[in-house]
Amino acid sequence: MMHSPSAEPAATSHSLATGTGFDPATHRFRYYDFVMAAFVTVLLLSNVIGAAKPTFITIAGQQWVYGAGILFFPLGYVIGDVLTEIYGYARARRVIWAGFGALLFMAFMSWVVVSLPPAEGWDGQAAYESVFGQVPRIVFASIVAFWAGEFVNSYVMARMKIWTAGKLLWTRTIGSTVVGQGVDSLIFYPLAFYGEWETSQVITVMITNWLLKVSWEVVLTPVTYAVVGWLKRREGVEVFDTATDFTPFSTKV
């Protein structure tokens, strides 16, 4: 049941261990920093290492080409689900902003390093540019899509936790990914490729990649359950965002 924000503290939570209330703004979480580091690491590496290489799988004799980064990028959504489920929307929001800042710096650093003249005798410039010389339009689309998709994912996750009274975790992880990845794909592919590709190709790739990402979330559901269960036991709390300010434009806990 939803409660009026004016009648509640910033977030309503209770301890799994004792059943008593606590203040999530001052509570010291043991593993929050590690989960944040994992999120930012997956985000950056999936964009740097995987984004530049197309690969394929063969299904019924037909080759299906996809970006290698799609194998690992959805892990960011899994970790995002864990963050919201364990630590609440406000702390997940801080992590999303940390990832956003890291992406901006990565794009800036890539542009500077690629632009620097290579030393005489070094013949790796062309290969370096093919990997790190990202098209500004695609970089912009990727960053905007990440920001919007992750916030939608976290918002849906937090709201569904209240609606389900903390039960049926799989409905929240999959449901939030369906919506969050949908927003991500709807923003990224048109922004990055509209006018460069045929409209039908943009739509096909957008839907295919969205389905693949959601499928990954479904496949990883047992892993999500194991991680969430372990962290809840270790942290000893259950956070419900019954009165959280869901604006994305804040870093307050």
UniProtKB/TrEMBL annotation:
Organism: Blastomonas natatoria
Family: Belongs to the vitamin uptake transporter (VUT/ECF) (TC 2.A.88) family. Q precursor transporter subfamily.
Record GO terms (molecular function): transmembrane transporter activity
Membrane topology field: Multi-pass membrane protein
UniProt KW keywords: Cell inner membrane, Cell membrane, Membrane, Transmembrane, Transmembrane helix, Transport
Pfam families: Vut_1 (PF02592)
Record GO cellular component, one term: plasma membrane
Subcellular location(s) per record: Cell inner membrane
Protein name (database record): Probable queuosine precursor transporter
Record has Transport as a keyword: yes
InterPro entries linked to this entry: YhhQ
PANTHER family recorded: QUEUOSINE PRECURSOR TRANSPORTER-RELATED
Function: Involved in the import of queuosine (Q) precursors, required for Q precursor salvage.
Transmembrane segments: 31-52, 64-83, 95-114, 138-158
